TrEMBL record, chain B:
Name the UniProt record assigns to this protein: CoA transferase subunit A
Pfam families: CoA_trans
Transmembrane feature ranges: none
PANTHER family xrefs: ACETATE COA-TRANSFERASE YDIF, CHOLESTEROL RING-CLEAVING HYDROLASE IPDB SUBUNIT
Family annotation (InterPro entries): CoA_trans_fam_I (IPR004165), NagB/RpiA_transferase-like (IPR037171)
MF-aspect GO terms: CoA-transferase activity
Organism field: Lentzea tibetensis
Keyword Transferase listed: yes
Key words of the record: Transferase
Classification of source organism: Bacteria, Bacillati, Actinomycetota, Actinomycetes, Pseudonocardiales
Length: 230, 266
């Protein structure tokens, strides 16, 4: 079965979520991947959206974190102060699932500005919930397309000190070495180490036991496409 | 005692030039109609406050109503960037826009402090980030009981809060439900408040999970059916996702935005 690099990334990201985990979900690819996981190997995955929806079970992919179906399908809907103070801050959430505009070798992420803060080349949306999702969840997984624009040697702004346990890209999977630097631990099928290095702004190390990601199964692809083509 | 009046009169009463004002709503119940009325009435020099400034703030900024923005995430949810916001920050068009940016947790707790009548709130927040270096409102504080290093954030007091709700009764008691965001805290943080509603009913029947704002904390109620569009009011309308996508094209260019603005002001 043919599949795109983005589909491989989303499937690999979904696999990073274990069943029954409690997951704080960012919108975009993380939300797609989390909803894919809930429909495949992790039916008991608890999805929390920062709009206050706890245990959301949307039947179609939300465009925003505040779509009506997230609330109507949730186990509980709470206020925004409550979602951050009572649910995220005490460490009740297993996984924070984030994306990024830029990411550095230690997995810090930038979603604030490209260029100097006072006179930015590109003004990005900003922090949102990410700094406290990154610090409040027991672990962080980042999903982001890998390129010289995103994988940079120095961030223009540290929005979140994410220290992810895993970064999943359209080229492969990165995990921190004992020193905390991200190394490539798996390449998606058809991707070479040279491809990954060429898309990275620092001298990217490959793990000694560098693996190859299992391609998406027909079932994973079917479910993903039924989600995204709705 | 709540004044129940028309939207133009309510906006004239509650939102004044130079105000620090929040039009809150976390993707749901966003008070678009009230924001549009602020544009029509030509308010200037506003400090706009909101966790998630989205399309209505893009419109207010593009129309030249704002001098300053206090926020934590400025984007078009699910679509991308706010082009009028970007143009103001990157090029000072139509006027320079000062920004004070926080994270969501910081903003939410600043509202909680103001609603609680406290000078500041405490959280574990913004640790290890560049946010404190660019904001006067994120400071370290040591817990007097445990010695833990925490983050203190100042109360976010408002001159005015504007929110949209599903309904009010004839006394001005307000009921909203679904994703209720930070609207209660915003109203309780404000000197003056305006709530636009889908309908005014004789009796507020209970709804699970509803927030009720008693009339004595609500200064003005104005009937504005559909007043959240293109956002939505749970039980009354659905989010017009197509408009949010269309806004990307309308707002990208100053000229097409100008046409949209002239149409609004006609």
């Amino acid at each position: 079965m043919n599949y795109s690099a983005d589909e491989m990334m989303t499937v690999a990201a979904a696999r990073a979520l274990r069943d029954r985990a409690v997951c704080f979900v960012g919108i975009g690819i993380p939300s797609t991947a989390a909803n894919l996981a809930r429909r495949t190997h992790a039916p008991g995955l608890v999805l929390i959206y920062e709009s206050g929806c706890i245990g959301a079970k949307p039947t179609s992919l939300p465009l925003s974190i505040g779509d009506g179906e997230l609330a109507s399908s949730a186990d509980a809907v709470v206020s925004v102060p409550e979602i951050f103070n009572y649910w995220l801050q005490p460490g009740r959430v297993d996984v924070g699932f984030l994306s990024a505009a830029q990411l550095d070798r230690r997995g810090n992420i930038n979603t604030t500005v490209i260029g100097p803060y006072a006179s930015p080349e590109v003004r990005l949306p900003g922090a949102g919930g990410a700094p406290e999702i990154a610090s409040g969840c027991r672990s962080v997984v980042v999903v982001v397309r890998q390129s010289l624009k995103t994988f940079v040697d120095g961030l223009d702004f540290v929005t979140s000190a994410a220290a992810p346990r895993m970064v999943i890209t359209d080229l492969g999977v990165l995990e921190p070495s004992p020193s905390g630097e991200l190394v490539m631990t798996s390449l998606h099928p058809g991707v070479s180490a040279a491809d990954a290095r060429a898309a990275t702004g620092w001298d990217l190390a490959m793990a000694d036991d560098l693996g190859v990601t299992s391609p998406p199964s027909p079932h994973e692809l079917d479910v993903l496409r039924s989600l995204t083509h709705r | 005692m709540t004044v129940i009046t028309s939207l133009p009169d309510a906006v004239a009463l509650v939102v004044q030039d130079g105000d620090t004002v929040a039009f809150e709503g976390f993707t749901h119940l966003i008070p678009f109609a009230a924001g549009h009325e602020v544009i029509r009435q030509g308010r200037r020099d506003l400090t706009l406050v909101r966790m998630t400034p989205d399309v209505i703030y893009d419109q207010l900024i593009g129309a030249g109503c704002a001098r300053r923005l206090v926020f934590s995430w400025g984007g078009n949810p699910g679509v991308g960037s706010l082009h009028r916001f970007r143009d103001a920050v990157q090029h000072g068009w139509p006027a320079p826009l000062e920004i004070e940016e926080n994270s969501h947790a910081v903003m939410a707790n600043r509202y909680v402090a103001a609603a609680s009548g406290l000078p500041f709130a405490v959280l574990r927040g913004a640790v290890g980030t560049d946010l404190p270096a660019h904001s006067d409102s994120i400071r370290p504080i040591t817990c007097p009981f445990t010695g833990e290093e925490l983050t203190a954030v100042p109360a976010l007091r408002l001159d005015a809060a504007v929110v949209h709700a599903q309904r009010a009764d004839r006394e001005g008691n307000v009921q909203l439900w679904g994703i209720t965001g930070v609207q209660k805290e915003a109203v309780l943080s404000a000197t003056r408040s305006l709530v636009t509603v889908e309908e005014i009913v004789p009796v507020l029947e209970p709804v699970p999970g509803a927030v009720v704002l008693p009339s004595w904390v609500v200064d003005c109620v104005a009937l504005a059916p559909g007043g959240a569009h293109p956002s939505y009011a749970d039980g009354y309308s659905v989010r017009d996702n197509a408009f949010y996508q269309e806004w990307d094209a309308i707002s990208r260019d100053r000229a097409t935005f100008g046409e949209w603005l002239r149409e609004l002001q006609r």
